Amino acid sequence: MAQFTLYNKHNAPPSNDITRVDCEHVPLCSANDVQLRFLVPDDLTEVRQLCQEWFPIDYPLSWYEDITSSTRFFALAAVYNLAIIGLIVAEIKPYRNVNKEDKGILPDSMGRTADVGYILSLGVHRSHRRNGIGSLLLDALMNHLTTVERHSVKAIFLHTLTTNQPAIFFYEKRRFTLHSFLPYYYNIRGKGKDGFTYVNYINGGHPPWTLLYPFSKCFYFIACLFAVLLVALLTLCHTDHIKHYASKVRHTSTLCAWMGSRVQQVVRWFYHKLLMRFNFIE
C-alpha cells in the first residue's frame, strides 16, 4: 500500500531538471511508489494546470487558493517522482446546507443532524490511469469518513457528466449508486450539459423510504430466487445442451435484476420530483 504522509512540500528534497523525470515518459510500476499528502499553497500552479487538462470546467483562481490552503477541504494529492499525478478534493458539510437538487439524498429525519461528504474533484494524470491511483485516493477519503469521529457523515455524493462513462463505471464499481438526473446542470463553454448525482451511503446512512421501495425489493428478491433455481437446475443437469440454455437464462435473470435496479432509481427520482412539484413534501 502506498504511504500516506502529511509532509509539507517545503521539506521535500530539492528537484532539478536532470533528476526529476517527466511523468509522461515514465510508467508507474507499482502503487508502492506513490506517496499521498495534503495539498499546500505551493501546489497551486501545478494543480491548476492539471485540472485544466483533466476537467472541462473552468474553476476560478479562488477555488484553487481554497483547496490548497483551507482546512475546510479534504484535498489529497498522489505524488510520484515529486510530481502530482492525481488528486481528490472533497468537502464535509451539514446535510441541511446542501443545494436544493441534492436534498433528496437522505431522509428528512436523518438529515437534520447528519453530515455528508461531497466529492468536488477526482482526477488522475492520463499516463498513470488504470494503475489504481483513483481507487487509492477514494479509499483514503472513505477511510477518513468512516472513523468514529466522522460517524455523523451518512453519505458521500458527487456529480458527473452523463457522458463521462469512465467516471460512471469507476464509481458504480465502488458501490456508488445513481440518485438523480440533473438536466443542464453543467455550463461548459456556454452550453448546458446534463449531469448525474451518485451516492454512497456510509455509517448507517440510507436513502429516503418511498412507496416504491417494497416493490423494488420484491422484484429484486424474485429475480434472485429465479437465479438460484437456475443454478440448482445447472447442478442437476448433465447434458451439455440443457446446460447451455440454462446458462443463457441465468444470464438473462442477472440482466433483469440490473435493469430492475435502474428502473427503481429512475422511478424513485421521478416520484420525488413529482411530490416536490405539487408541494406534498418540502
UniProtKB/TrEMBL annotation:
It comes from the Eukaryota. The chain crosses the membrane at residues 73-90, 218-236. Its EC number is 2.3.1.259, 2.3.1.48. It is an enzyme of class 2 (transferase). GO terms for molecular function: histone acetyltransferase activity; protein N-terminal-methionine acetyltransferase activity. PROSITE patterns: GNAT. Coiled coil: none annotated. Residues 34-214 form the N-acetyltransferase domain. Keywords: Acyltransferase, Chromatin regulator, Chromosome partition, Membrane, Transferase, Transmembrane, Transmembrane helix. It catalyses: N-terminal L-methionyl-[transmembrane protein] + acetyl-CoA = N-terminal N(alpha)-acetyl-L-methionyl-[transmembrane protein] + CoA + H(+); L-lysyl-[protein] + acetyl-CoA = N(6)-acetyl-L-lysyl-[protein] + CoA + H(+). GO terms for biological process: chromosome segregation. One of its GO terms (cellular component) is Golgi membrane. CDD domains: NAT_SF. PANTHER family: N-ALPHA-ACETYLTRANSFERASE 60. Belongs to the acetyltransferase family. NAA60 subfamily. This is N-alpha-acetyltransferase 60.
